[in-house]
Amino acid sequence: MTAIEATDVKELEDLDEQDVPKAEWLSFKLAGLDYAVDILRVQEIRVWQASTRIPYSPAYVNGLINLRGAIVPIVDLRLRLGLDYRDYDAETVTLIMDVVLNEGNKTIGIVVDAISEVIQTDTDNAQLSADFDLTIDQAYVSGIADDGEKMVILLNVDTLLDLDI
Amino acid sequence: MSDPLERFRAVFFDESAEAIDAIERNLLDVDDASTMDAETINDIFRSAHSLKGGSATFGMGSLTEFTHVMETLLDKVRSGQLRISQEILDCLFSSLDVLRNLVAHYQFDDAINQAGMQRVKTELEHLLAPPSSGQMVAANSPETSDVPAGPAGSEWLIEFAPDPGIMMTGNDPLRYIDELAELGDISVTCKTSAIPDFEQLDPTHIYCLWQISLKSENSVSEEDLKDVFMWIEDEAEFQFTPINNPEDVASPAPVIPEPVIPPSEEPSPPVSATEQELAQPENPQPQDASVPVKSKAKRAAQSIRVDLEKIDSLINLLGELVITQSMLSIYGDEEKYPQFERLSEGLSQLERHTRDLQEGVMRIRMLPIDFCFSRFPRMVRDLSKQLDKSIAVQIIGENTEVDKTVIEELNDPLVHLVRNSVDHGLEDRSTRLAKGKPETGTVTLKAFHQVGNIIIEIADDGAGLNTERIKAKAIEKGVIKANANLTEQAIHELIFAPGFSTAEAVTDLSGRGVGMDVVKRNIRALGGTIDVRSIADEGTTFTIRLPLTLAILDGQLLKVGQETYIIPMLSIIESIQLKPEDINKVGNRDVSFKWRGNFIPILNLAALFGCQVDHQQLVETGLVVVVESDGKQCGILVSELNNHQQVVVKSLEANYAKVQGLSGATILGDGSVALIIDVGAIISRVRMH
Q1: Between A and B, how many CB-CB pairs are < 8 A?
Q2: Binary contact (A69, B319; C-beta < 8 A)
Q3: pLDDT of B343 above 80
Q4: B439 and B413, same structural domain?
Q5: Domain range holding A108?
Q6: What is the pLDDT of residues B71-114, one digit of tens each?
Q7: Distance to chain A for B123, nearest Cα, Å
Q8: Which of residues 632-671 of B touch A (CB under 8 A)?
Q9: A63 interaction partners in chain B (CB closer than 8 Å)
Q10: Which of B199, B285, B544, B667 is deepest in the core (most CB within 10 A)?
């Protein structure tokens, strides 16, 4: 009896959830914390590869790689967010992102420590980040998500990769 | 993409631009020869007519109305009722400006220049009125006495056999018969013998042919009949036979046999329009040469419109192929991989085909420079009227092909140079005569290929550059010091200095705030150079040297430390090895070395770009690439010289940003990215420090 009631409630919840806009985010590790980007903006995930250094580039710009014929800059996300530099290892990956900027769309890669998982958020559990001191620039953050026990910082790709060069 | 009609509109705008250009070209021919042959006027008429038809289809009222008036005038010229005169030509030229304005109005919502349009329209209408009588006569009123073009018959037998597929082109044959009825009384017989059995009948096809007899009180020429069917002349066959036409007897070259000849000369009856067109040129018909010539021209210029984006993506893809191919080419080494003999054969074939393919695809983007040159005769004509100078334009090598992007970027600099030649270079009539030169000055535009470059020369036979005035001006503007001792050539080159303009008064033509320095900058942005040569009283020649395409570049690969860079071969004079003691030092810095008797600065690329490199080793290696830009040389210290190869230039801005001293990037055979050095930019940087 109680079991059946429980199912009903779950079903009701499911129905409710369908009305709330859901989004999928790809989470990754960076200096011990979890961050995530909108998965629809991720073109592909690549193992880290050597890049060509660009003269006069800011420290967080790693260099250029060849992505099937396109010249794509790679940004070290640790340095971009003002975190400490760490040498790349076997788990280091590059996420190739679609960035929407005023001057048009660009393809830019970001280097992260390790990839974690795909998480689902809805507007309910994505809190505003203003209440937290995240040590990183608030303009880059679009919210905080609660993924079970962990806190995941949702990044705004467009402000994050609006490189000021 | 959204509205299908929108697409047709776009095509119409493209075509109308072409039609207007075509009219202009023809008018210029007429202007030059001061006679107008039947063929040219027919061409002009046709262009105007299709403009009118198209604009009516899209409901562009003003455009239709205006072209109609213009067409009426052209029709009168064509039929010989009006003689072509300078007045008419001028009026037609200004009509073109109105047309352009109107097209722009419908295309881009530009404002209509109402006053201008009205003025030209009035002028056209004024010309349409018969000169002597001053009476208004309807355009197609009978003037039997002076209608020399084509035999006119009051009675015609017309056979009209549309192609079976004519309905698919959106044409309804009956409409044309209706239109024919407007010329006079008609009686129509429909021949249905060709209709197949019901099973074989394709309902979208037409199997009928019509015999129409036309009786008209007015005289109707064959041209008039052809006009009715103008829109479908390629989709149907016609025979026009005049019946008891007394005027034919007087007519020296009757057209009557024409329709009959094709079947009699060709053993098989002409089943398609193509065959008839092929047969026609054999007709001994000097008077009516326009028809076969036109259909020939149509055949020759077969082309399709392709979105530039599609071609660009093809070129990108091809760049990939080139990279993949060079990646594979290391396995083609037979000594290393003797077991793969077949593979290495295949690879060398692949290489050859890739190269051919690359050339082929690049050629799709190439257009004859005529696209750029063709506007100048008109421009010079207008300018010479304005300045009251007599100037001829000579164009040589207009078929020389060059990348479309280059052509687009070349337009403004060329306009500026030609304006300059016309305004400053060429003298007015009396001065020219006083100097013993022909009254008419000449501006020559010349284009030709020279080892991977296109050379464009803009020459005039005017007064040449005024060395004294340039020098005085340069001193006044502070470009040079008063006591500077310069060669004549160096003084001439001062005109490219920023902020330099010799025009005493700012005329309407030159001196619009942009000077030769802007021209030079534009050309340099295209990876080209510009030189000037001038001889007093003989004229001035500007020579522009440009790469054929901006997409592929001949580059020298080199290493600075571990980093690979590319220098365009065009900028390299030579590569030499220096001894450490050849390098002059100031303090700790390498400053210069002696090269061909002059000291030229040394550029430390490693320091400029912040490369990790053992400086001591770099100097000991002493490998220097001597590069040149703007007539200034400098030596670049490098660690290693690699091979030189063609590279596909990719923009850095697409995903990143413009980088100082770099003109782009490319992908090497191993798939890595290498940066291309902008020699002009780094040399001017060295000069600054």
Answers
A1: 73
A2: yes
A3: yes
A4: yes
A5: 26-160
A6: 888 888 877 777 778 888 888 888 888 888 888 888 888 788 88
A7: 48
A8: 650-652, 654-657, 659-662, 665, 667, 671
A9: 673
A10: B667
Residue A130 has pLDDT above 70, yes or no: no
Instruction: Tell me how many domains chain A contains.
Output: 1
Tokens of A131: 């209440």
Smallest Cβ distance to B316: which of A50, A69, A106? A69
For residues B322 and B181, state if they share a domain: no
Residues of A in contact with B659 (CB under 8 A): 54-57
Catalytic residues of B: 49, 71, 420
CA end-to-end span of chain B: 53
- Cβ neighbours of B682 in A, within 8 Å: none
Q: Has residue B61 got a pLDDT over 60? A: yes
CATH code, A66: 2.40.50.180
Q: Which of B14, B141, B131, B120 is nearest to B67 (CA)?
A: B120
User: How far is it, in rounded angstroms, from Cα B181 to Cα B220?
Assistant: 12
Task: Say if residues B188 and B212 touch (Cβ distance below 8 Å).
Answer: yes
Q: Residue B76 sits in which domain range?
A: 4-134
- Asked whether the beta carbons of residue A56 and residue B652 sit closer than 8 angstroms, the reply is no
Same domain (yes/no): B375, B498: yes
- Rounded CA-CA distance B531/B541 in Å is 8
**Measured between alpha carbons, how far is B627 from B649 in angstroms, rounded to an integer?**
20
For residue A4, tell me if it sits in a domain.
no
| Best residue of B655, B670, B677 to probe chain A, by most A CBs closer than 10 Å | B655
Q: Are residues B538 and B495 in the same domain?
A: yes
Strands B209-221, B152-162: pairing is antiparallel
How many independent structural domains does chain B possess?
5
pLDDT in tens, A23-43: 889 999 998 889 999 999 999
Tell whether B297 is covered by a domain. no
> DSSP string of A70-139?
EEEEEEEHHHHTT-------TT-EEEEEEEEETTEEEEEEEEESEEEEEEEEETTTEE-GGGS--SS-GG
What CATH number should be reported for the domain holding residue B476? 3.30.565.10
ipTM: 0.83
Same domain, residue pair B50 and B70: yes
